[in-house]
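Input record (Table S2, row 394):
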Amino acid sequence: MLRFKPIEMAMLMTSSFCAQYHASYATKEDETRGRIHSEPSDPARSVFQRDRDRITHSTAFRRLEYKTQVFVNHEGDLFRTRLTHTLEVAQIARAIARQLHLNEDLVESIALAHDLGHTPFGHAGQDALNDCVKRYDPDGFGFEHNMHSLRIVDLLEERYAEFPGLNLSFETRAGILKHCSRKNALRLGDIAERFLSNKRPSLEAQVTNLADGIAYNNHDIDDGVRSGLINLEQLQEVVLFKEHFDVVMAEYPNLKGRRIISETTRRMINTLIVNLVEQTRKNIIAHDIKSLEDVYEAPVLVEFSPDMALKEAELRKFLLTNLYRHYKVWRMAFKAQKIITDLFDVFMEEPRLLPPDYQKLSTDELILSVTDYVAGMTDRFAIKEHKKIFNVGN
Ligand code: MG
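Output record (magnesium ion complex):
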């Protein structure tokens, strides 16, 4: 058995690197609102550790490896995919959670599940699928990846004898449901109740949300430069980048190539995390937050300082203008839209082209079934499926 001297034990208990100590406003395992299907507790793992393990063993999680973040999977082996993005989000979210004494296990499970519902081809794919669903069902709910993530973990995964889906805890599911329209909230019941009563999510969910942005803003700089679509000169228009770049070049005037970008973005990530933790601590004190209930009632507490929020917004705007709307990325998005739309339409018109499990008799069921089938595709599967159906001779 591990034995600590009293001084070591005291250090462990007070250090911000101690994973076990949870603040009074953190989400606690023993206060969980439980799972849809009740299950005996696990002697070896906490509720949220178990959620995390179920997510990493799911099919939807493995599919993330072949789904686009910004660059389509086959454009290069070194670009981020949804999977590596997800791992970066989890790592950043855990670092923040530990500093704030939040529940790291919960943060990790929300982060690992946060993009499970993404379609192939990133946001272009999602927009195309949403347009398709709305065309066939104008009064329906459309397609939204958060909602689809919840559908995957609640229903679509097939792993357990006792229940469909992964049967995750209420807290992980609530964290996955980042946005939700009033219309959707009304049909979803208690998991979406906060959207009707205007309450905030747990701090763990708030942290994961911001960690997502920290991860993609920085890795998109890295991937953008790697792809040649943006360059160092352009990036120096961005205050947050320029500040860190200048410090790096002053310290290492002879630094060359990729190490400049990597050294600059790692410092940017660090600055953003430190700023977020400091501002959130201030907010927690200012709003006298003592419990999880206080978190639900308060405004959003996890945020950057006003100054940093402006710099972060400037970086987002830069990436939108120069990377996400770059004509080469736009061409990829255009092709993605065509593939998704063609597949959706052909399956709706000729359901017998679908694998038998997805063929449905009623139009409503068919729309949902085609949505599930298309949303579940990886980039390369969608391309292959499109070729198989539309290229005569394949
Ligand atoms: Mg994400």
